[in-house]
Amino acid sequence: MDILVCGAQVPFMRGGAELAVENLVAALERAGHRAELVKLPTVWDREGIFDAALAWRMVPMHADLVIATNFPSYFARHPRKVVWLFHQHRNAYDGYGSAWSDFRDDPPSHEAARQLTQWDQQALGEATKIFTISGVVADRLARFNGLRGEPLYHPAPLHERLHPGDFGDYIFCPSRLESNKRPDLMVEAMAHSTSGVRLAVAGGGSLRAALDERIAELGIGRVELLGFVSDDDLVDRFAGACGVVYVPRDEDYGYVTLQAFRSGKPVITTHDAGGVLEWVVDGENGFIVDPEPAAIADAIDRLVADPERTRRMGEAGRARVEDLNWSSVVDRLTKE
Fold first, then answer.
1. Residue 165 is assigned to a structural domain of this protein
2. Angle (deg, nearest 10), helices 135-145 and 107-125
């Protein structure tokens, strides 16, 4: 079968969505399909966002099946359009001011968001089937559009390479250094931690300079901002960590959690972390705490204080993601 996978992208940005569509195309090809990734540039600002949606409306889609993913790629038109929804546009209309958007709590934003919701209603309603990457995304779709999406979970990048290792003297987190990922909570938690454990954070972003300043202000010598690391280094860092801390706000899915579990490491997260909570069970494969530095620090110290419990939680996390695979994702997306 000839299949087009549609994925929008903000130019010069690369993250989980981009990796997911590339892995989907590879999985489709392994299953014997002829697959092609179609990408169009998009923007999140209020003035240009409708142009991005219209651009997808105008692209000819000559294939047996079209699989649309992130906003606004699902505006593509095809008689057999399956949506595997990564995310819609987050804006002031749903009470969430996106770090990537100029939608705010003001009348022009409200009107644009109202119109965008109507457009979503039509474009998503055209799909022959709607899947979502998580229950969180499915809940948003039902709440704002009255449409039902079925969660369809997939492996995180490096799933086959990640492996357990020793429990070292550091807590690890790979994450973009942006406000929705809340790296400041992790940094400030280290000022409350009494265990002596280190924090290693991989990734870059607009908050790097501010975090460097905050680390200096707090006088914390146990925090290392690694910047971008290679895949090999990422695998090794996961394997050697005592545990992983991941405290985003209202995450769509949460690759970091799946990667940590695959590496046999428990995860510390927060009550408002969104899709991460579909994986972490408090006290079983990690800790779920309030989004406060002191609470995060307490969870970190509990991991360090009880190595045997930490090991058991890591094993439970690995078992939790053992059955994730791309073959089942392809089967569901391509089934008549």
1. no
2. 110
